[in-house]
Amino acid sequence: MGASGWGYHTEYQPDLQRALEQLQARVLADGDYWWAAEGKRASDCTNRPRSMAALLADDHVQQSGTHSILDMNRVLPLGEQPQLGWMGDIQAILNAGRGADAIEHLGRPEFGTVTQVTPAEALELTGTATLTREHLTALDDLRYYVGFGRCAVLHDTRAEPIEIYFWGASGD
Predict the structure, then answer these.
(1) What is the CA radius of gyration of the chain?
(2) How far apart are CA 113 and CA 149, in angstroms?
(3) Which residues contact 109 (CB under 8 A, 6 or more apart)?
(4) Is residue 95 part of a domain?
């Protein structure tokens, strides 16, 4: 099937990890993900898992993912970069050699992490650190690689935070 891009808006709260978990609970309950066991949207499947534990224990999910926010594990603290391992630097991969040599030298990627847009990134791409929905198109290229996500706190016209946008790509 290949990887799929995804994006979700959720109500703002200062604890981004909690926001991620609440969003995942909503996505799981709504069946708003790819259910590989049936080869279709989970919302069309009465036998889909109803808990994250059951979902993550499924062999199909372990092989193919859900092509959704459910494939993410945690939000990194602001400013912490994701561990891209051998995915992150093509020149370093070439210098380290192929296959197992590159993995041993550069490490394995920490898939499933979400990185918040930094004020510096926002300012560089949009001209402001106070992001709104109108800025999302400019931020789309901040997606790292398949298996990683991004998030941005979005504001209203009074510069008050009102929602969080999570986006990324995941799945086989």
Answers:
(1) 17
(2) 6
(3) 82, 83, 84, 85, 86, 87, 88, 145, 147, 148
(4) no
> Would the pTM count as exceeding 0.85?
yes
> Which structure tokens are listed for 22?
């609440």
Is there a domain that residue 152 lies in? yes
CB 142 within 8 A of CB 150: yes
With a CB cutoff of 8 Å and minimum separation 6, the contacts of 132 are 154, 155, 156, 157
Query: Which pLDDT tens digit goes with each residue over 28-42?
Result: 999 999 988 888 899
In DSSP terms, 154 is beta-bridged to: 163
Please name every residue paired with 40 in a beta bridge, in sequence order, or none if there are none: 35
| Distance separating alpha carbons of residues 157 and 86, to the nearest angstrom | 41
Tally of structural domains, the chain: 1
Domain contains 26:
yes
- Flag whether 133 is in a domain: yes
**How far is Cα 47 from Cα 40, in angstroms, rounded to an integer?**
12
Contact by Cβ (8 Å): 125, 139: yes
Q: Which domain holds residue 50?
A: 4-83+110-170
Task: Quickly state the pLDDT bin for 96 (edges 50, 70, 90).
Answer: low
Q: What angle do CA 119, 121, 127 make, to 5 degrees?
A: 80
The helix (run of H) or strand (run of E) holding residue 148 is strand 148-155
